[in-house]
Amino acid sequence: MEKPFVPRYYLGVDGGGTNCRIRLANESLETLAEVKNGRSNLQIDDGEPAYKAISEGTRDVFEAAGIDHAETANTYACFGMAGGRMDSARAAFAARPWPFAGVKVYDDIDIAHAGALGGGEGGVVIIGTGSAAMSIVGGTRHQAGGWGFHIGDQMSGAILGRELVRYAVEAEDGLAEASPLTRAVIAALGGNNQAAMTWSFATEMDLKLLNRDGSEGCDDVLIGRAPGEFGKIMPLWFDYLERGDPVAGRMLDIQMGYIDTYVRWFKAHGARVMAVVGGLGQRLFPRLRDCYGDFVALPQYEPLHGAVILARQNFSA
Length: 317
What we know:
This protein is an alpha/beta fold. It has two domains: about 10-120 and about 300-315, Nucleotidyltransferase, domain 5; about 155-295, Nucleotidyltransferase, domain 5 (2-Layer Sandwich), CATH 3.30.420.40. It is built from twelve helices and ten strands. A five-stranded mixed beta sheet has the order 3-2-1-4-5, sandwiched between helices. A five-stranded mixed beta sheet has the order 8-7-6-9-10, sandwiched between helices. Strand 1 (about 10-15) and strand 2 form a beta hairpin. Helix 3 crosses helix 12, helix 4 packs across helix 5 and helix 9 crosses helix 10 (about 245-270).
């Protein structure tokens, strides 16, 4: 007597700090349904919001696909998570009481890599608000960057935006050459350096959470702007770059220098391709192609599909 057919499903999660996307696929990796839920950074509240977002999103995606939630027992899941750089954070999250037949938790760059290269070998760089790099060569995984705004993210829009603001402030003080771009940056931040300084710090904070009285001289109160706020300056930079602004050109040189460091790192351990993921990287891609030729490539698939690819690779029938 033949055994009854038991369907097998793969669930991929692209867990971001703002929201997470969840995709349910069949054994052929064809999408059955996709949903979006809340923020899912593993470093926020010990991953509790991420657990809630994925749990609720799983119910939603099965409902959207018209499949009984009980089929999670025949589903293999892969999560690519923001804040997943730390091994301990990924292990703790994987150990939570999931309903799936199997769960694998990755850093978000792993699913970007799998999607960009279709599950194959080579390198990938994320160049967006943040930045990071990873490759798989000869079965060995290499990773660099991705350590966050304060100590890393050298290729990112957040870092480049911060450097541009710093330069614009120096130009306003007469310490560096001004340009239409530096004047536009200062105008966007309030019109003078005093306004730019005010902008650079958070304007609202909960002093109770800080456990401080807010008195002058308390360093903890000086909370800087979030990386994304500096990243929002990038469209202004591109506008002036296209106009040939000299300061915009200097910032481009800084950015290309950071990227070149990673290109050399990839080539040093034998990567033959570097896929470029992220909004800033996509806009810079024509320049990267001019510099590096076929060594750089656009992604084959998005990171969410990369999560589904990794789910099948980890839990093949």
